[in-house]
Amino acid sequence: MTTIGDVAQVNPPKPKYKELTDDDVVGFVPMAAVDESSGEISVVEERPLGELRAKSYRTFSPGDVLFAKITPCMENGKSATVPELPGGHGFGSTEFHVLRPGPEVDAQYLWNFVRQKSYRVEAEAHMTGSVGQARVPAGFLRDTEIPLPSLDEQREIVDHLRSISDRTRAAAEHLATAKRIISSVNRSLHASACTGRLTEDWRRANTDGPDTEIPFGWKTVRVREITECLDRLRKPVNNVERAKRPGPVPYYGANGQVGWIDEPLFDETLVLVVEDETFTGRTKPFSYLISGPSWVNNHAHVLRATDEISPEALNILLSFYDFIPLTSGSTGRRKLNQRSLMDAELLLPPVPEQQEIVRRVNEGLKSTALITDQLDRALRTLGQTSQAAAAKAFQG
pTM for this structure? Predict the structure, then answer.
């Protein structure tokens, strides 16, 4: 056992740059360029030395280890080994601690040690400074005890951890792909429900008429014909005012519940539809159900279903409706106004078939939710695997 301060310099002094002129190009590393998952630096900017040398940037060299000391970058694991640099010198944020390994310690070994979650938790406990600006002091790094096997064994440990990291990263990419597939399955489920494909067999068994271009028994309607719009009753309340009115009533916005308030505007089952939010490239549904006491702000349209349709069926028909051509405004934040929503056309199935659609969609969503939960658990396990491997490695 030794300490980091015994085997590495912590924040070494700036070099004299005797071999360079102010016009010579050197490297600059923004904090955002440090990838917390891989320990790699994605971007090394090229800047003239004269632009940087007089400023209070942290300096480093190839082979050094960068360790973000400020919250939340430190807790998120922003750390990296420094690659080759333009001009052989680097500059970056003073919110980096720089560890310069001595001859006894391998840079990758040192980086793997300080990036451990257990180490970052301990570092967080030693932070100093105000809330939101807390930092890990250099003394904590210097005094940290570190197990030091031979250089050969250090490099064996590094290779072992890299192998595990590569495999867990590949597995995580496969799991992420599976989650995207599940999301597309949910959209396809809704699409088939809205066109009648989902209940083709049900119609053959329960009706006498043939399907033509429109499924038998279905009809084209506008949203205004099967709903009542309650937008006139909604009221926005900002965060400051809501803080003065704490209570048990959910406060809803464009994408779901965004807070609580003391009293309700509504007390029934309703369908909320996004009014002004992300439309282009959106993966979330455009509508969602609420029930019971509630308060709704002005970022979601409020629809009450009539006797011709259940709220659950209405939500299915609107969840992934192609609203984008009906919206106006900039790409980043388009708006679906009330008239466009209420004039939107959709296919309305008869009430008995609506009930079957709701049953089948709910059954399908329940299945995909179970799969998504399994995928999320697997992703969490992958993260724990890398940390457990590191813990074993540094225990010999």
Answer: 0.69
